[in-house]
Amino acid sequence: MKSAAVALPATDFAAHPFFGPLDRRPSRYRGPHRLSHHGWLNFVERLERREEVSAVLAAVATSRRVLDVGGGTGELTRAVAARVERCVTVEPHARRVEVLQAPDGSAQAPDVPRTGGIEVLPGHAEALPFPDASFDAVLACWVLPYAEDPDRAVREMARVCDRSAPGGRVVLIGGAPDNELVSLLNEVCVPLAGEPHDHQGHLLADAVRTLSGLGFTDISLHRTEAALHFSEPDLEERITAAAALLTDFWYEGHPRAAEMREALRPALHRHFALRPYAIGDQGIVLVAV
Ligand SMILES: C[S@@+](CC[C@H](N)C(=O)[O-])C[C@H]1O[C@@H](n2cnc3c(N)ncnc32)[C@H](O)[C@@H]1O
Fold first, then answer.
1. pLDDT (tens digit, 9 = 90+) per residue, 111-165?
2. In angstroms, what is the span from residue 99 Cα to ligand 1's centroid?
3. How confident is the model at residue 102 (pLDDT cuts 50, 70, 90)?
4. DSSP 3-state assignment of 29?
5. Which of 114, 157, 233, 245 is buried deepest, with most CB atoms within 10 A?
6. Which three-class secondary structure state does DSSP give residue 116?
7. Which atom of ligand 1 is nearest the CA belonging to 72?
């Protein structure tokens, strides 16, 4: 699948291959994943996502006031804040809020500029604490699968977006259909947890439907490559590290977590035979104007 940007009328989007796999699209939202803080920190430490950061910076190039919903530990938020007049993030997780508020920006990713210019508010996407049209660009990167009510979150994002501003837009990032991390979790951990299959494309397709109904009819999609890097020279050590990271990401403390780690080993053997030192975290960047 190529990393090309495409732009189509919103009505043509539901069946777009970037929102696949089409044969596994669920009829309703499976509910939020529980993102463990420890799992997230391990994830960010191994993540390289230059292409994704560049795509987000390009999307907000003409925006002055930016809201980054669910800023996490702020790696992406800081990159945006360095380039815009005002950058605000709303984040519900107390420990991530602490990291975001730390004066030295004590999150990982030392190559990201630290501006200290981020306004951090605890809160949820589903009830954004701002008047209508408060921001030019409103971003939510890898947030919808963690929200209780993704549709309400998207409606709130549209409400606080000033679509008459030159850089007025909603920007969402979710997993590409061939996202290697999500595929491994779906293959091994999700069934052991007895949960419904994770499908990132259906959340983006639903968001397009909602946004186009609200008047955001100019939609573009851009596929990005990103990856978690596992540089351990010994294959078994690498597999142990990857199995722990994948399990802890969504299932830290789950009663079947130990079983998940074991069950991931053969899948990771197969994965690393093809791609020895990385697991892809391919994304779709959706810009709605
Ligand atoms: C996978 S992380 C992504 C963080 C950041 N956007 C990034 O790309 O680095 C998802 C973030 O969304 C936050 N989140 C979960 N539910 C949310 C909600 N209802 N509203 C806003 N943020 C939420 C989580 O606490 C977490 O920090």
1. 433 445 899 999 999 999 999 999 999 999 999 999 999 999 999 999 999 999 9
2. 13
3. confident
4. coil
5. 157
6. coil
7. 27
